[in-house]
Amino acid sequence: QISGCPFSSASGKQRKLTGRGNADWWPDALQLDILTQNGKSPDPMGQDFDYAEAFNALDYNALKADLTALMTDSQPWWPADYGNYGPFFIRMAWHAAGTYRTSDGRGGASSGQQRFAPLNSWPDNGNLDKARRLLWPIKQKYGKHISWADLFILTGNVAIESMGGPVFGYGGGRKDVFAPETDIYWGTEEMWVDQGAGTRIDPDKQLDLESPLAAIQMGLIYVNPEGPGGNPDPLLSARDMRMTFERMAMNDEETVALTAGGHAFGKAHGAKPSDTFRGAPESEAMELMGFGWLNDQDEINQGHITTSGIEGAWTPNPTAWGGDYFRLLFKYDFELVHSPAGAQQWQPINPDPEDMAPDARDPSRKVPTMMTTADMALKMAPEYRKISERFRDDQAALDNAFARAWFKLCHRDMGPKARYLGPEVPAEDLIWQDPVPAGSAPSDNDVSGFKSAILSSGLSTAELVKAAWASASTYRQSDHRGGANGARVRLAPQNGWAVNDPEELTRVLGRIDALRGNLSMADAIVLAGTAAVEKAAHDAGFDVTVPFAGGRGDASAEQTDADSFDPLEPQADGFRNYLKTKMSVKTEDMLVDRANLLGLSIPEMAVLVAGLRVLGANAGNSKHGVLTDRPGQLTNDFFVNLLDMKTAWKTVDTSGDEEFVGSDRASGEQRWTATRTDLVFGSNSQLRAVSEVYAERGNEAKFVNDFIAAWNKVMNAGRFD
Ligand code: HEB
Q1: Has the ipTM of the complex gone over 0.95?
Q2: Which residue has its alpha carbon closest to ligand 1 atom 22?
C-alpha cells in the first residue's frame, strides 16, 4: 500500500506544490519576505562565511563539557524533570531529525528548521521552544563556531552519553539558514492534529499515505502516540509506525531500537487539560517573546505541564540508560486509562513498588509508569515483538542497534561522509552514506584523448548528453544524495529507470567504458556529455570551452543500497520532458521542484530546459519542445520559436492538458509539438520575462555561456571531494 511515488495522492485531487504554508496558517505574521526580494539574503553571516572553517576552530571538548553541565543545571523558569534536562534534549534532537523523509530528501536536522514556523509551532514540537532557549547561553558563548542545527544534535548526543547511553559518533557540518524553508510540502490539512484533523491513513481502510509525506497527521513528526486518529489500537499503530519510519529510512529493527531506546529516558507530559495553556509560539502574544504553550509559573514549578497530553515515565529510572523499558513492557499486562489531560494511555496492572517511577519534581513520591499505544505496538505487533524480545534478552544488541540507528537518524540528511566535521566522526563507512571510493583527477592527455575518441565513436550528441544528464541530475540538495560521483547510473536501480531509456543508456555506457582509458566511469560519463555540449556549441558557431573537473570515483554494487535509491527515480523530469504518470501537482510544478532539488535558479532552470531540448535530450527521444530546425546545435532556438507570434498553440484533446501542437497562424500548417513544461516558459509571465531575455538578438552567446555554466553546476553537484 505504500506508494513510492512522490506527489501521488489517494484522493487524486490537484494541489499546490508546497501545500499549506506559513502564510495560510498565520496570515497575520510579519511579512519579512518582502525584504528578501531581488535576491537579498536574510542570512546575516553573508555569502563568504565558511561554516566548516568556523566549526573546525571550535573548542569541541569545552562545548561538550558545558553541555554536560547544562543537563543538571535546572533553571527556575523551566525546572528540569528529575533535575535532568537530558531526556528533554533527546526529544528535541529526535524531533529535529525526525522530519526527514526519503522520497524528496527534505526535512531533517540539517538546517535548524525547528527554530522557525511551522515546525516551531507544531503540536508535536510542544515545549521544545523551552529546550532551545535553555541552550541559548551556550549557543551565544560558542557563536559562529556551532550552528543551531549542529547544536541540537550534539546536545542530544551529550544527553544520551551523560545518562550512560550508547553513542556511535557525531558529525558536524549543518549550516544554519535564517528563514523558514518554503519548499517543503507538509500537507494540505487546515487543522492541526490537536484540533481534530483526521488521520491521513483511514484507521479502518488501507488507504495510501500521500507521498512525500511521512507523518500520519498534520503537526506530527511521525505517528499519533494515542494510535491512528486517536484510536488506541496497537496493531494499527504498528502499521502507521512501519509506514512512517520506512519513509524516514528506518527498518523494523531500527524502529524498535529507536523508540524503545528513546523512551528509556524521560516522561510524557499531560498534567492538565491542554486548553488551560496558551497557544503555540507563532500565534502568541509579543510579551511571551517567542514562547508558546505557557501557563502560570507556579503551575510549571509543580510540574503541571501538558505537552502530548499523555502523563508519566516509561521506566522507574528515567534518567539512566538500561533495559527497564522492555522489562516492564513484557513483565506486566497493561490497561487503557486516561491521563489527567484526557489522553488515552496504557498503565501496568498491579505494578511492584520498585517498578513505579519517581515523581518528576518530588523523588520521594512514586507514580505509575505508562506506555503509549505506539509503545504497545512494540509488544503486540508480531514482527515488532520478535525484535523487542531479542532486545529484552540481549542488552548489548539493543545498545548497538540504538547507537547506530540514532547516528543514522541524526546524519541521514547530511549526504556523503566527506561533509561530516569534527573529532567524533566514526571511521566505519555505512551503506546509507552512499560511499564512493576516492577518485583521482585524470591527466590532460587522458582528458583530450577520451574527448576525441568519444566524439568520433559514432554516438550522437543527444546520446552523450542524455547519459551525462541521467548520471548527474539525480542530485538533490535536500539530503545531498545522488549526482554523477560514484557513477551509480550504471547500477541498479538507476540503469533500469524508464526516464533513462535503459537500452540506449546501456549501449552508450558500454561505449564510454570501452574508450575511457584511465578515466573513472563517473568522470568519463560527465566528460562525454561535456564534450558533446562543446561540440554542439561549436557547430552552432560559438567558440567556447566547456569546463570539466575530473576526480570522481566509481561505486560498486556492494557499496550501493539499491532499494534506498528507488525514491530518487524522477516521476517527472521536465528537463527531459518526461512524465511517468499524472501527478497531484501540475507537471510544471514538478519541473520547479526538480530544479529546486538541483539547487538551480530560475534562469539556470530556463537555459537548461531550452538547451537540453535543442540538444535532443528528451526521454524516449520525443520531439516535444524541440523547437529548432537544427537539432544538435546549442542555440537559443527554443526561446526564439516559443515566443514567435507566428505560431498558435492548441491542446491535443486526448492528452489531458499535457500535450500541445503549435501551428502557423496563417497557413494552419503544424510546426511543433510541446508539453506543459515547454509552454510554461511562454505562458507564465515571470518565466516569459526570462525567456525573452534569452530570445533577444545579441543574447545568443549569453544563452550559450549561461547554459554551459548551469550544465557545469549540475555536472559537479554532489561532489564534496
Ligand atoms: Fe518519544 C517523549 C511519543 C519515538 C525519544 N515520545 C515522548 C512523548 C510522546 C512520545 C507522546 C511525550 C512528550 C511529552 O512531553 O508529553 N515517541 C513517541 C512516538 C514515537 C516516539 C509515538 C514513534 C513511535 N521518542 C521516539 C524516538 C525517540 C524518542 C525515536 C528517540 C530516539 N520521546 C523521546 C524522549 C522523550 C519522549 C527522550 C522524553 C522527553 C522528556 O522527558 O521531556
Answers
A1: yes
A2: 225
